[in-house]
Amino acid sequence: MKLYQQKSGGSGGEGQLRAPDEHAPLQVEDEQIIFQSEERIERVCRASKILNRKQMADSEKLNRIIDVWRAGRGVSCLHVFHNIMPAEAYTREAAIIDALGMQNLTNLKRGDYYGKTQSWPMKQRKQLGILLLYKAMQIFLAEGESQLLPSDLI
């Protein structure tokens, strides 16, 4: 944003903007203010479009997210278990899905297991998921909650 002093009066320099110095009042260019307010209006319009696409949404998961946003809340986003290989991440995801149960989630399919966990019985897979959920809860309690709102996506 550009700041200028008020227009200088007098002969020769009338109507020109001067560079700011310490003691004179500053003004913001009108164009900058208008541009920033238009940008904000566009962001709000895009956010309202996201909230209004409930009728068009074909995904149960997306519908649930939109319902949370319409209630004035954000979707909690947890970032846990950093820097692991994809196969391990998929296995952990599958174990957590099995621990929570498909009936409590909007996932369309169960996760995939890799490595030794493929041969584990379901009880042991669920126990792994419960352990991972417990660790995720500890991380959540230590770091706190951060909610994603429609305005964060734009």
From TrEMBL:
InterPro entries: ANKLE1 (IPR034998). Pfam families: LEM-3_GIY-YIG. GO terms for cellular component: cytoplasm; nucleoplasm. Coiled coil: none annotated. Residues 1-20 are annotated as: Disordered. One of its GO terms (biological process) is resolution of meiotic recombination intermediates. GO terms for molecular function: DNA endonuclease activity. PANTHER family: ANKYRIN REPEAT AND LEM DOMAIN-CONTAINING PROTEIN 1. This is Ankyrin repeat domain 41. It comes from Culex quinquefasciatus (Southern house mosquito). The lineage of its organism: Eukaryota, Metazoa, Ecdysozoa, Arthropoda, Hexapoda. The gene is 6054488.
